[in-house]
């Protein structure tokens, strides 16, 4: 992991406290150079770099190409993965994205979170569903592979199936190859946590989060690997869609049918104990 930026350019999603107090800035190139020299000295042969930070892909194409050249000065042939926001692609053309792919950026992780405009606006994600289709469509056109994160639960109580259906409509127009299917834990010190405390937002139950997963897995049409094995989830599986769909839906149906009030209490208690790092 190589720090290339600090903080997040947006830093305003209402559920996120991750970079509070850390304004966005690119790491100085001398620092990146020193870190690369250290990697090359202690781990020669390193062939893959995670370019760390909130959304390093928001940097200009020129800066990202410079960064790739620096990586290859110390680690010839190493490939590079990094985080991007959906709007990180706004300042890049399809040709820019092709050039970045050719320069060694082999995959991008995008926290899309949802394809539901109501949800995206409510959590102040900073873009709309149409932007997801347009900007990810540029990655598709450029042939630059990308992965994504779906954040279940942020639609709030009573909206599991509806928000999954709206999101699937968006995901069915783009071609991410992998999805972390996760679910929100609302921290008291986040803006969303304050909404909950005021009684303005009712969180989704644990059972409803299972139903949201089910609805999404049922509706995704393009080939994608879905992975729920994350600490915030109460059910863990990897499914290669569409091949594993029926097996996966059967497992989710079984989990939903057997879900008791005790399960709800136990999983809610577990979630309440989760803390950010
Ligand atoms: S874009 Fe990501 S890192 Fe930035 S505020 Fe939103 S969730 Fe947090």
From TrEMBL:
Organism per entry: Tractidigestivibacter scatoligenes
Signal peptide: none
Key words, A-Z: Iron, Iron-sulfur, Metal-binding, S-adenosyl-L-methionine
Keyword field contains Electron transport: no
Cross-referenced Gene3D superfamilies: tm_1862 like domain
Record's protein name: Radical SAM core domain-containing protein
Listed InterPro entries: BchE-like, Elp3/MiaA/NifB-like_rSAM, rSAM, rSAM_horseshoe, rSAM_sf
Sequence ranges assigned to domain Radical SAM core in this UniProt record: 1-223
Cofactor: [4Fe-4S] cluster
Molecular function terms from GO: catalytic activity; iron-sulfur cluster binding; metal ion binding
Keyword Iron-sulfur: yes
